[in-house]
Amino acid sequence: MAISENKIYQIALTLIPKIGDVLIRQLISYCGSAEQVFQTPVAKLQKIPNIGKTLALNLQDKSVLEKAQKIVQEAEKQQVELLFYTDKKYPNRLKQLYDAPVLLYYKGKADLNHTRTIAIVGTRQSTEYGKSVTEEIIEDIKPFNPLVISGLAYGIDIVAHKACLKNTVPTLGVMASGIDLIYPYQHKNVSVQMQELGGIITEQTFETQPDPRFFPQRNRIIAGMADVTIVVEAAIKGGALITAEYANNYHRDVFAVPGQLGKSFSEGCNKLIKEKKAEIYTSIQDVVETLNWDLLGNEKSQVNKVALDLSHFTEEESQIMALLHKNQVMEIDELAWQSQIHIAKLSSLLLNLEFQGVLKSLPGKKYAISVR
């Protein structure tokens, strides 16, 4: 696995003290590349918004390049992929989020840009009811072959991962530790099996121990990579509700399995439904109808067969139609990212194309070419 020199600079950026994902993207936007960030003089760096003198001076420290080189060597040794946010294989669903991690450590065979993705989360103290519901969800979604995402934790998470392995459904475990430190350790064998069809992924570098502050960060990745999040069981407070909150903030669909009144691990799900932060989950058909999974399955081949005549469209309309022809169904944020058209103007263009009858809007701010 060959690593470019620019990749070393990209990794080095993540090792700079007092820097975060948002600032890294901002620096690269201003300077042009990760390497150019390190070549830019302190005076020029300080002119970039939110880049103070301390951070500008930290960016002159070339010792981080040596540390980055060691990370590259370790990645090659452990067959771990280092995915920067500008890489083609980086999850597109995360690219559109302002707070997405700029660097991911990934090991496995899953397509991180799978057509269908679903997160299943819940309490670590799962009941038999929660386990059986989780297993039933996995069995029911098997015909749709989605990528199932969860957090590799005790309870609902590990039940979901194991059910996926049993049903040969690809599953991805998002970790709050370094990719070489499986937590909890008891799930190491499961994580190895997952890599044959799915995989494991984290934003934490090698040898990073799990820490309470990393788990909410992990939850944003779970929510950000999924088209829909299903909360099976949850207490009134906990990681599952944090994941649901992130999903809502990212304008992704959320479902919650209703639970028995008076039971502590039903309170979280019932609260989400009551506060209209989640739709009630009654069967997999709820998800299928909301995400138009049937439509995706039935029309995908038809869309590919349509001869795309762009001669009567404007340049920007042609760009939108070409993207939809290639990807079948896309969210408006992803269309904006790939087309580089401002979202306000993009909304107007999409509405015009819809009036022309050449595309249709779907639930969840998604769009597809209208097959006729």
TrEMBL record:
Ranges for domain Smf/DprA SLOG: 82-291
Transmembrane segments: none
Boundaries of every DprA winged helix domain copy: 314-365
Record-linked InterPro entries: DprA, DprA_WH, DrpA_SLOG, RuvA_2-like, WH-like_DNA-bd_sf
Family under the similarity heading: Belongs to the DprA/Smf family.
The protein's name: DNA-processing protein DprA
Organism, as annotated: Arcicella rigui
